[in-house]
Structures are given as C-alpha cells and as structure tokens.
Fold:
Amino acid sequence: MNLHMKKKYKLLALSILLDAIGLIPFIDIVWAPLSGYIMTRMYKGEIGKIAGIITFIEEAIPGLDFIPTFTIMWLYTYVFKKNKAEETIMDVDAE
Structure:
C-alpha cells in the first residue's frame, strides 16, 4: 500500500472517530465550534470552509448529531470528487 493510500485511510479513521465523538450527549456547546474548526483544518480551501460551517450547524442543532459529516466529507473528497483530492486535505502522518 503506498503512502497516499495510507494517508487516505488514516483520514477516514479520524473522520469516523470525530463523528463518534459528536454522538456523545451534552457536549454540543463545546463540540459544535470545535468540530467546525477541525473540519476546516482537515480539508483546505473553500470546500473545507463550507464543510466547517455545515458541521458547526449540524452539531449545534439538537437531534442532528447522528449525521456523520466528517465521513460524508471524506466520501465526497475520495469517492465522488477524485480529482484534486491531494490539494484539499491536510497532511497525516502515515507511519
């Protein structure tokens, strides 16, 4: 498995972990802005900013915590929008 593939799947694992953290009840007041910020750091550019805003709104509204926004963003980046994926993601240590 090459370095790009390892980095890609580490980012998927991180996305699943962050979505799981978002399911924890009663942390929305802290998690909503933090998750929006993390999303903008994970995915660079305009798409990361839009995803950060969506993540913030999704986490801030009660009852929408079940939506896996980090994993959906990973799917968008690596499955649906395969071109230029390298330019929109953060560097993850793939060791």
In short: Residues 3-88 form one domain. The chain has a mean pLDDT of 87.
